Amino acid sequence: MKRFIYDFTFEDWKQWMLDHGEQSWRASQMMDWLYVKRVHAIDEMTNLSKGLRQLLEQEFAFTTLNILAKQQSGDGTVKFLFGLHDGHAIETVIMRHNYGNSVCVTTQVGCRIGCTFCASTLGGLKRNLTTGEIVAQVLMAQQFLDETEERVKSVVIMGSGEPFENYDATMQFIRVLLDERGLNIGQRHITVSTSGVVPNVYKFADEKWQVGLAISLHAPNDALRSSLMPINRRHTLAELLDACWYYLRTTGRRLTFEYALIGGQNDKLEHAHELGKLLKGMNCLVNLIPVNYVPERNYVRTPRNHIFEFKKVLESYRVNTTIRREQGHDIDAACGQLRAKHNQSKESK
């Protein structure tokens, strides 16, 4: 199978050009065609020689994402279900904020982490995405926004899958995002989320980027976290927090902890006190998330007034806390929901 043309960074293109008897500055032309002009075919790269275009055709394929479904919310949120070359499907979301448009990308087809409140894990992990398949999601979102002369301002790597279990492709993707000749997204406008793959939290800290890191926490103790997130049996809460402290010391960046509030499970005030004691003194932000309804999970939401009480307890420990603004509530908002519906529909045929 040919490599995807979006798999390469600028440095990769420089080396490829040199390896094939071309001048290294041709790499800048490739980046311009792919990310500024956003062409759809190698033949459109008219300032490249015919021989070079033929060589590119032999070795590379444009990453094909077919729109299987598109849902648009009343608040402007747009969710795409993209079909991949091998018949699998993934989700990508455009979220509109007062500070600009954000794109949430997926890094895996499915997920093996097994968080009990998440639709992404239904059916398990099928495969990792390539760098090009992740990059193409942002390009497809940008092409959609081009119609109204808008642009992608920020990217969150929080879609289906565990980015730190597809670490190399995710880091390569971030390099393409950061490159001013590429997608040119600022480091502070990118956030990657992990459920807590501890060795790669250390590895990510050592990248020494100013890219944001969000940790899916969802419980203040090992017993509860292990019941909600099986990854905690691999990497305990204490091990995860040690890695978080390393990240804070190494980067000087604030950490975000995501905490999905599930009625009757992890939302008691005693949990808030436990969480406050756990995180007190850390340079962090806790993002409280009312859990999305997933039919297969049968979890219920924490009442709104109780969410504010939970927040107040955390703030008594001087832990910065926000409540996530809900978007796309009138469409299949939760990660994996649209894909799960698509898969059920395929199986029923």
**Gross morphology:** elongated
Main sheet makeup: 10 strands, mixed
Order of helices and strands: EHHHEEEEEEEHEHEHEHHEHEHEH
Low-pLDDT runs: none
| CATH class bucket of the largest domain | Alpha Beta
The strand count comes to 14
Mean pLDDT equals: 91
Proportion of residues in helical segments: 25-40%
Pairing-aware structural class of the strands and helices? Answer: alpha/beta
Number of domains: 2
- Which architecture of the largest domain per CATH? Alpha-Beta Barrel
Strand order of the largest sheet: 3-4-5-6-9-10-11-12-13-14
**First and last CA, distance:** 29 Å
- CA radius of gyration is 21 Å
Please name the fourth-level CATH homologous superfamily of the largest domain.
Answer: Aldolase class I
Number of helices: 11
Please name the CATH topology of the largest domain.
TIM Barrel
Pfam family, one: RlmN_N
GO biological process, one term: rRNA base methylation
Family: Belongs to the radical SAM superfamily. RlmN family.
Binding site for S-adenosyl-L-methionine: 161-162, 193, 216-218, 292
